[in-house]
Design brief:
By secondary structure, the chain is an alpha+beta fold. It has one domain: 3-Layer(aba) Sandwich (Aminopeptidase), CATH 3.40.630.30. 35% of the residues lie in helices and 29% in strands. The protein has a seven-stranded mixed beta sheet with strand order 1-2-3-4-5-7-6, sandwiched between helices. Strand 2 and strand 3 form a beta hairpin. Helix 1 runs antiparallel to helix 2 and helix 1 packs across helix 3.
């Protein structure tokens, strides 16, 4: 199946939420359990929160679309805490599409969206070995660790990874 990467619109919010619910459960249930994952999804990925990310100035929200369904999503924005740094907040690929290059294609587009950025940063759940491997293949390397991934008091440790971006 061929997916085309495009900018998300508000019309995509419900499909994005459905993709995130499916992908979060497939990815994180083995580590955190279904109840904790559902709380994460409901807290971070409500339709209203997704719409606000899609509309956020200075951010870039992309979807991989085959004309019938979404195969993946990516969202990044400039990181206000660090100069010349773009933060990759979300890059999720539907389980049935993983390993087909959808995530790589979304990332390839995202890394060109921030001409003022010199670094792309991402936080990856410590137990998510598949994602860690994916980001390493894209050229990211570990720069730090944190105890609270996703939200304060989450109790979810993470690895912070960065990639130096080529000048545009």
């Amino acid at each position: 199946m061929v997916y085309f990467v495009r900018t998300a619109s508000e019309r995509d919010a419900d499909q994005v939420r459905a993709l995130l619910v499916e992908t979060f459960h497939a990815t994180y249930d083995p580590f955190y359990g279904a109840l904790q994952v559902q709380r994460m999804v409901d807290g971070w990925n409500s339709t209203a929160a997704i719409r606000s990310r899609i509309l956020k100035r200075g951010g870039e929200f992309l979807v991989a679309d085959n004309g019938r369904e979404l195969g993946g999503i990516g969202y990044a924005a400039m990181y206000p805490k660090m100069a010349k740094t773009a933060m990759l907040h979300q890059l999720y690929v539907k389980p049935a599409c993983q390993g087909e290059g959808v995530g790589r294609d979304i990332f390839a587009e995202l890394e060109t969206c921030f001409p003022e950025a010199e670094i792309m940063r991402v936080e990856v759940a410590l137990q998510n070995l598949r994602a860690l491997s994916f980001y390493e293949r894209l050229g990211f390397s570990e720069v730090d660790r944190m105890e609270e991934w996703g939200a304060p008091n989450s109790g979810l440790p993470a690895i912070i990874m960065e990639k130096r971006l080529l000048p545009h």
